[in-house]
Amino acid sequence: MDAVLTLAGEGTRMLPWTRGLRKEFLPLYDRGDRGEPVLKPVAHFVVESLARSGARRLTVVVQPKDLAFVRHYFSIDPGFLARHRHHAERLAETERFYATLRELRISFAVQPRPDGFGDAVLRARPFTGSRTFLVHAGDAVLLEPHPGTLPRAMARLLERDALDAVLLVRRVADPRRYGVVEGAAAPRVGGRRRLTVTGMVEKPDRPKTHWAATAVYAFAPSLYPALERYRRRLRPRELELTDGIRELLAAGGRVAALVLERPEEWRSVGSPDGFARALARTRHLARRRCARRE
Which residues have CB under 8 Å from 227's CB, separation 6+? Predict the structure, then answer.
């Protein structure tokens, strides 16, 4: 399976941190291999989740200025392990991540300018080709009892029903800040609620539903020409992924959504308050899991 990880936005809500450091590399807590709480960058979390979902080819979309750093982080460095072998107990998580990286064929696509989420995904086209693929933004995490379960379910539904897209949605109190999904209830999938999507609007003043899209998707390659058609026709300043989904629907494409339900959670680090909540929540979950293990 293919997956696309986007690390190409400007992150202006997190200035001045993002003036020199990417928000996707802010730390969150996880339970380490030995049961202890550890810190991992958000993008590290996402790559592990995508690998566990079954992805074996990963395209990382970056800005030119970040390419060297991102490539280094997602590369295996035997010299680093050798230099710190006298602290073997500290290397457990790095070695585990290296084992994940060995399962992946990683490519890097460059987005020269921050021209939108849709433009970033479109940059991955030479690498995913005519295959179906997952998309995951790098500034948020899915917290699941078994990481990778939801993306895997989305990819399976996409292929089983020959859909153009599968979205992941959650119910929010104020949907005006999100991409709002409209649709009707459809038969459950593996016990999970499902919607047949009929529309999607980015940050509407008067949302028709409370279903907000999270930045995790499964797509058929038909997304790419839909994004290009929208760009040619309307020439937007920034090309959003919502634009491509709306174009798919307008052309008669078939789009479904799965509903995020407890105990699953979606946590974004795209704002200072969001990062604070995500850090506190992951710390609580990591410590609770460690206590249970003891």
Answer: 118, 119, 121, 122, 239, 241, 243, 244, 247
**Residue position matching structure tokens 């609580």:** 284
Q: What is the dihedral of CA 147, 239, 25, 289, to 10 degrees?
A: -20
Which distant-in-sequence residues (6+ apart) come within 8 Å of 118 by Cβ?
Answer: 227, 230, 238, 239, 240, 241, 242, 243, 244
Pairing of strands 265-268, 140-143: antiparallel
Let me know: does 117 contact 62? Beta carbons within 8 Å: no
CA gap 225, 185 in Å, rounded: 28
- Cα 155 to chain center, whole Å? 13
CB of 267 closer than 8 Å to CB of 281: yes
For 217-243, the pLDDT digits (tens) are 999 999 999 999 999 999 999 999 999
Crossing angle of helices 42-52 and 92-102, in 10° steps, is 50
List % helix, strand, coil for the chain (3-state, nearest 5): 40, 30, 30
Q: Looking at domain 2-293, which CATH architecture does it have?
A: Alpha-Beta Complex (3.90)
| pTM (2 d.p.) | 0.94
CB 179 within 8 A of CB 203: yes
| Closest C-alpha among 21, 19, 20, 8 to residue 111 | 8
